[in-house]
Design a protein that fits this description.
It is a multi-pass membrane protein. The protein is mostly helical. It is built from 16 helices and no strands. The protein starts with a helix and ends with a helix.
Length: 349
């Protein structure tokens, strides 16, 4: 990416500095700036990858050496418009440059009636999620926390707190999706033949019903997951999965809880591949498959809850409380299975 790599390092550096020097009450004032920088790095790197892969022509191509400054600016204007597209800097799924350009060129094809129904449906979804969030928030605030919970009670505290974080994420993603839809960049707008369709960030049904951590990872913040896969995973030669999660922790700001959470997540995904590959060769009857899916679903949701609390921890003391609780048993089980099955696979090979 050359000089564009500076835009990747900037949000990570400033996030680490702000979190280290300011208190939690002050950091939120700069969140919108950091978030916009993070989303800008997505668009810059996505566009640079498109140019490197030949999907998009660089602005400098096709311009003569003696061209005026206005000619250069006219050629570069679509790229600046894409990078600084205001609704996308507030949030929402990552939109490719080709789709952005196609949608702008077809701006007269927007159907107002379709948009009203789509926005109304998203508004109802947000309302329902916010109501659930209020109810669950009262349950969490009325119960014990990780500081004073006892043994198995800590599992309920972790699950309910992570559920509160999930509802917040789902609500924000649907709101961002509605904003892009109102701007004319929703499903079916500006889609060229052969181009991949619209990818929403919140696939709530899959996220809440899957029994596989790897599938949860691909569906969680889906457009960002695909961007990370394209940017890091597909170019990584050694330990691409670990590189991807390490880069994600760096991109999010290198907070201790985020570093621990993302590296733990990488180990869980690696273990998930081995466990389910091993289980498929032994579990044949449907009652055993049903039992297996039920147990792995519960275990997956508990591990995700553990990772979420680690990532959202804003102090080392909170992270230590989580690691020192009974909740650490769930990722520890997967780590042990990763070691045993990895050793067995190596011996077999």
């Amino acid at each position: 990416m050359g000089s564009f790599a500076v835009l990747v390092l900037t949000p990570a550096l400033w996030a680490a500095v702000l979190i280290a020097w300011l208190g939690p009450r002050d950091v939120h004032r700069f969140c919108i700036t950091l978030s916009s920088l993070m989303l800008l790095t997505q668009r810059v790197t996505s566009l640079s990858l498109d140019i490197c892969e030949g999907k998009v022509k660089a602005a400098s191509r096709g311009i003569r050496e003696r061209s005026s400054l206005s000619d250069h600016l006219c050629k570069a204007l679509p790229y600046f418009s894409y990078l600084l597209f205001f609704p996308a800097l507030l949030g929402g799924p990552l939109c490719s440059f080709q789709k952005f350009q196609a949608r702008v060129q077809r701006s007269s094809n927007l159907c107002p009636r379709h948009s009203v129904w789509a926005l109304s449906w998203r508004g109802l979804q947000i309302l329902g999620l916010e109501c659930l969030k209020v109810v669950l928030g009262k349950v969490v605030s009325a119960g014990a926390g990780l500081t004073d919970c006892g043994q198995l009670q800590c599992i309920r505290v972790m699950w309910s707190t992570a559920g509160l974080f999930k509802l917040t994420y789902y609500s924000c993603w649907i709101l961002d999706d509605a904003l892009l839809h109102a701007a004319g960049f929703g499903p079916g707008f500006g889609q060229s033949p052969g181009e991949e369709g619209y990818i929403p960030d919140a696939d709530i049904w899959t996220l809440e019903t899957t029994h596989r951590i790897s599938l949860f990872t691909r569906k969680w913040n889906q457009s960002t997951a695909r961007w990370l896969r394209r940017l890091v995973f597909q170019h990584g030669r050694a330990w691409p999965l670990l590189q991807t999660f390490a880069f994600s922790a760096w991109w999010h700001g290198l907070h201790p809880g985020q570093v621990f959470g993302f590296l733990c997540w990488a180990l869980m995904v690696e273990a998930d591949y081995l466990i389910h590959t091993f289980a498929r060769s032994f579990i044949r009857s449907w009652p055993m498959q049903l039992l297996y899916r039920t147990l792995t679903w519960a275990h997956t949701q508990l591990i995700i809850a553990y990772i979420m609390l680690a990532v959202e921890a804003r102090s080392l003391s909170s992270l230590w409380l989580l690691c020192n609780s009974y909740n650490s048993v769930f990722p520890l089980v997967y780590c042990i299975l990763l070691f045993l099955l990895g050793k067995r696979k190596h011996t077999f090979n």
